[in-house]
Amino acid sequence: MTQFRIIQIGVALLALVVMSSCNDDKQAKLVALKKQQQELAEDIARLEAELKRDGVESARDEGVKVVTLPVVRESFAHYIEVHGKLDGDENLQVYPKGQGVVTRVMVKTGDAVRKGQIIALLDDGALRKSYDQTKVQYDLANDVFVRQQRLWEQKIGSEMQYLQAKSQKEALESALAGLKEQLSYMQIQSPIDGNVEDLPLKVGMAVSPAMPVATVINFASLKVVADVAEAYSSSIMAGDSVMVSFPDIQMSLNSTIASASKYINPVNRSFKVEVRLPSAAKGYKANMIAVLKIADYRQPSAFVMPVNLIQTDSRGNYVMLAVPQDGGLKARKQYIKQGVSYNGLVEIVDGLQENQQVITVGFQGLTDGTLLSQSSQR
């Protein structure tokens, strides 16, 4: 047998001796504890017997002090919050109908304007010259037509001359009307009554029909417009109640959803809702942020409790109840089924009955059958 092999065997024997020593220590400790337990039990029994003989009752275990809450039915709702913006039915941008260079701006930002009022003028010099020339030609053609018509009524001249004069007159009349309409395009007019809130126009600026030149708002009829996620399309309908708040001016009010779009935007998978507001209040501004708090779930009669009272084990979710038993109160684990939760509260759809006492303070660490002191209710 080699020296190395002898060393291996020695190490193994030493390990066995150590393990045996550890096990012996544990066994000895266990025996000692059991002996102490027996001695304590005997002391307790002897003291109880002596107290009973002396006519004194032994000390009672008063149990764990807890606070309970009775199970009652109440209204419960779940809300979603979405951000929208304040708008008016007639808040819009103004586009010119013609194109040209601005020669005069007739209003300034903040001015009240009426529908059809001129906001700015464009350079119409070339167009007006064309109009004046066509007007002269029209006047001549009209005079010729009147004369030719009189002759024709007297059976003088040919019908062809009369028809030519009439055609010339009507063609110039149509051209004159077209030029007159184009001249009106050189006036940028307000399409609604309201206030000018944005006016980027300056004299000398070139504008075209594709370019917004002003913003006119009318707060006679107000609304909040918001995009709501597609997931709520079946639970949010026109007529649902909604709370509208404006964080910037610290104001809120109750209203209803006026309309909920039937169209889902394919880009952001949302649909639009509109909420009508009463007449304009002080502080409202176009495009102001508004927060809509919409109830997407309501249950008028439900068991509701704080979500932090619910515990979980391998079987599922449960709460601790205080139940009368053996002349006192004892803890009982009650398994439940949760429903919708909101703002720290949860609906309990199964597992509870009315007037049961749910432990709200002191429930941590309780087990089935734990003796409880006379619980206080809140």
UniProtKB/TrEMBL annotation:
Entry keyword Transit peptide: no
Domain CzcB-like barrel-sandwich hybrid: start-end pairs: 93-216
Record key words, sorted: Coiled coil
UniProt entry tagged with the keyword Coiled coil: yes
Superkingdom in the source lineage: Bacteria
InterPro entries for this protein: BSH_CzcB-like, HH_CzcB-like, RND_pump_MFP
Positions of the CzcB-like alpha-helical hairpin domain: 127-184
NCBIfam families: RND_mfp (TIGR01730)
PANTHER family: HLYD FAMILY OF SECRETION PROTEINS (PTHR30469:SF15), MULTIDRUG RESISTANCE PROTEIN MDTA (PTHR30469)
Name of protein: RND family efflux transporter MFP subunit
Species whose genome carries this gene: Breznakibacter xylanolyticus
